[in-house]
């Protein structure tokens, strides 16, 4: 078996696979994974329609699952990968769970956390933007085009 390179693209592909699950279930296609020490410890996708819960964003579900996995409210040494820039609610959850990094794909200029300024996140959390942004954004465009047709 060929050796997998565990980098941001590799883990963003895993998040994108989660987003595709959301797409297939007619949810807004956003996916997230939480990685700790090069291991995916949580996977999630948007389930706001399925659960009838406006807080059931991919990031919220992934952060909760990761906390449960680690039996800790803090996600030290963890990275949250998400296909779309987190909203302010999800950034607030990241503030409290304190992952070392957030890596996101497509920007969300209307509802992303950066509309409120970067101070929304914990000061120790670094952010990498635009990883596989085209692929992540394309899935969202396809979803909303399908909704309009």
What does this structure look like?
- 40% of the residues lie in helices and 19% in strands.
- The model has no long low-confidence stretch (mean pLDDT 94).
- It has helices spanning 8-24, 48-51, 58-70, 88-97, 133-148; strands spanning 31-36, 39-45, 78-84, 101-106, 126-128.
- The protein starts with 7 loop residues before the first helix and ends with a helix.
- With 149 residues, the chain is an alpha/beta fold.
Query: Spatial order of the strands in the main sheet?
Result: 2-1-3-4-5
Largest sheet: 5 strands, mixed
Which whole number gives the mean pLDDT? 94
Low-confidence stretches: none
Number of helices: 5
- Structural class by SSE content: alpha/beta
User: Radius of gyration over alpha carbons?
Assistant: 14 Å
Question: What's the total number of strands?
Answer: 5
- How much β-strand is present in the residues? 15-25%
Assembly state of the chains shown: single chain
Outline type: globular
What is the CA–CA distance across the termini? 43 Å
Fraction in helix: 40-55%
Following the backbone from N to C, one meets helices and strands in this order, namely HEEHHEHEEH
Task: Give the helices and strands, then pairings.
Layout: H1 8-24, E1 31-36, E2 39-45, H2 48-51, H3 58-70, E3 78-84, H4 88-97, E4 101-106, E5 126-128, H5 133-148
Parallel strand pairs: 3-4, 4-5
Antiparallel strand pairs: 1-2, 1-3
């Amino acid at each position: 078996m060929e050796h997998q390179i565990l980098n941001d693209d590799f883990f963003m592909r895993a998040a994108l696979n989660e987003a595709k699950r959301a797409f297939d279930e007619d949810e807004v296609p956003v996916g997230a994974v939480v990685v700790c020490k090069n291991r995916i410890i949580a996977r999630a996708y948007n389930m706001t329609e399925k659960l009838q819960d406006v807080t059931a964003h991919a990031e919220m579900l992934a952060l909760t699952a990761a906390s449960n996995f680690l039996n800790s409210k803090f996600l030290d040494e963890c990275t949250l990968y998400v296909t779309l820039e987190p909203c302010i609610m999800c950034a607030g959850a990241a503030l409290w769970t304190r992952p070392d990094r957030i890596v996101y794909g497509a920007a969300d200029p209307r509802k992303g956390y950066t509309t409120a300024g970067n101070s929304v996140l914990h000061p120790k959390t670094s952010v990498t933007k635009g990883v596989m942004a085209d692929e992540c954004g394309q899935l969202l465009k396809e979803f909303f085009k399908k909704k309009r047709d």
